[in-house]
Amino acid sequence: METNRVEAFSDGVLAIAITIMVLELKVPDTPDLHGLAEFLPTLLTYVLSFVYIGIYWTNHHHLMHLTQRIDGAALWANLNLLFWLSIVPFTTRWMDESSLAKLPVLVYGINLLAAAVSYTILQARLIRIQGAESRLARAIRNDAKGKWSMGLYVVGSAGAFLSPWVSVAAYVAVAAIWIVPDRRIERAVAAGDDGA
Amino acid sequence: METNRVEAFSDGVLAIAITIMVLELKVPDTPDLHGLAEFLPTLLTYVLSFVYIGIYWTNHHHLMHLTQRIDGAALWANLNLLFWLSIVPFTTRWMDESSLAKLPVLVYGINLLAAAVSYTILQARLIRIQGAESRLARAIRNDAKGKWSMGLYVVGSAGAFLSPWVSVAAYVAVAAIWIVPDRRIERAVAAGDDGA
Amino acid sequence: METNRVEAFSDGVLAIAITIMVLELKVPDTPDLHGLAEFLPTLLTYVLSFVYIGIYWTNHHHLMHLTQRIDGAALWANLNLLFWLSIVPFTTRWMDESSLAKLPVLVYGINLLAAAVSYTILQARLIRIQGAESRLARAIRNDAKGKWSMGLYVVGSAGAFLSPWVSVAAYVAVAAIWIVPDRRIERAVAAGDDGA
Amino acid sequence: METNRVEAFSDGVLAIAITIMVLELKVPDTPDLHGLAEFLPTLLTYVLSFVYIGIYWTNHHHLMHLTQRIDGAALWANLNLLFWLSIVPFTTRWMDESSLAKLPVLVYGINLLAAAVSYTILQARLIRIQGAESRLARAIRNDAKGKWSMGLYVVGSAGAFLSPWVSVAAYVAVAAIWIVPDRRIERAVAAGDDGA
């Protein structure tokens, strides 16, 4: 089974998830600087979620690039990841509309954690299909970033009981870690492309 | 006529159908556990419909993989299937907003039944185009799962007159049957890929 | 310049236009047969617009299949067509919410007419680029269906001043004409595929 | 790393951004000419934003056509461009709902300016990757249109303090400049296609 249609479908879901969030942005109550100031937190949560989905798309892109074969289980692992990413617009909205109340901030963290775990499951399944000596397996020997992210999500989710800003700081930190695309895979891709 | 653009368009429609449902999720009234508890049934109907569309996407993926040629009638059989899947977000919402009232639960079942019948029509047309000796025809000799599903949809729809939970149980059972992707086709694909 | 990305973008816009209409379907006021009966006209306008966009997708698919080369003017002719199709959900909604009032029914007809004219312009441009001896040019020698459609749209739009049902009848008639895919092109495609 | 999936994802985001704006169009209050007249400015802002996103899609199409290789930085430059384009529906809506108030008109101009700057950054990165002697580099020797656009956006944004019509005139002027697709690239493409 080839990966191109999985990529196309994933691209579709991610493109929609990243774009429809804008539909939910309510325009400021007043067309002045005061209205704009009140709108800023909403915009920033939107930017954060945009960046998150952008990160997943980038990593998914790299991951699939090193994948030649998939199977039915991998399709469902991918759908599972898409599920958690598809509800990011919803948890973002809840967090935002509640003005960073404790529970929605916690739920947002759990959503991101579930997405990270789902990504790890998908990655593990793909490595298993490609084999231990595949380029993919060699590229992901040590998934330090993935582990850091999951740790930070737990910290961020738990931090909601202290202050939402602890959570936001943790979530922003994860985005910062990942915004540099996965050089390990990129190197492997480059090496493979040169070698091919 | 090739299948790639049919796949791309179908991927687009299914990606949107699976994703826009989240736009319709209203955030809980209060940002606390009580609000979250009230929200749970909504989330579960969302999950159920996500899984259904995921199942159709997976099976459509397998079906098209074994299809080399299509014609105008197949295009319309495909559009017919996409129509029924595209209104799943609507019937889901109605069922959910009515708190599982009799008629919306019945309508949801009819929607799923219509999608299943449409899929069978598309499949029959594609088999006819590929020929009785094609890999597709051999892979779908006996469509037991398809028949079970349709039976369960009828049970589920009728069950709405007894209790919505009978219906929900039937609908969940169909999802459970299908969540294992179509091994018959998968085997045929694998065999074909090996043989090619 | 190749056509594949034009197809992908057009597929995206059409997939969205055909799918988002469902977002605008308001659930019936009451979860009973009375509510369902009141909802029927809304469902039927939805079906009609779904069929229209399906027709355009099918014909666009056939048209692009016979097209090897495009240019900047063709890109804009295509965007022009997509514009008119992208506002079909809006004119559909207006017609429906006004309960088939005169002006919205007229505007719906003008929308469909503009889409038909845009399609004709795109087709003419593509024929010009491919050349008078191309398979595309030979397949579209005489565009009887296109001319009938435009005539019926004018009748339907004007008919809004008599009764909305005249308009609806004319719009349904056009859909009926086209629901049979363009056999001329299909024959040419088949001939080309055989000859190739 | 190849460009096809970047194109697919960008097509998805742009197709959604260009299409969902219609979801936000509120139907006229009354189904008569008065209602239609009141609706006209809304329609015109919609058309303007549709044309803008169409322009970006067209130019992106040309740009990617001359691009053979991308890297992680280019992926993020592309996501940055998509971000600014994805919020065009939002700034359009704000400008429209405020009846062209000063601040929203200014913000719309800043949005377009940010998109133009992002496009320039993406283009610069792609030229750097392809090399100074690449077809892309030679095609974009002198980016007069890009510079004119940015100047006009600044004029338009600043003009909001005088009159929204100054802004609108500037924004329409930029669209007019670009609606003619980038002949420089088109010529290079044609030359390359002929030479290939």
From TrEMBL, chains A, B, C, D:
It is found in: Membrane. The chain crosses the membrane at residues 39-58, 70-90, 105-127, 148-179. The keyword NAD does not apply. It catalyses: K(+)(in) = K(+)(out). Pfam families: TMEM175. Its main location: membrane. It comes from the Bacteria. It is a multi-pass membrane protein. Keywords: Ion channel, Ion transport, Membrane, Potassium, Potassium channel, Potassium transport, Transmembrane, Transmembrane helix, Transport. Belongs to the TMEM175 family. This is TMEM175 family protein.
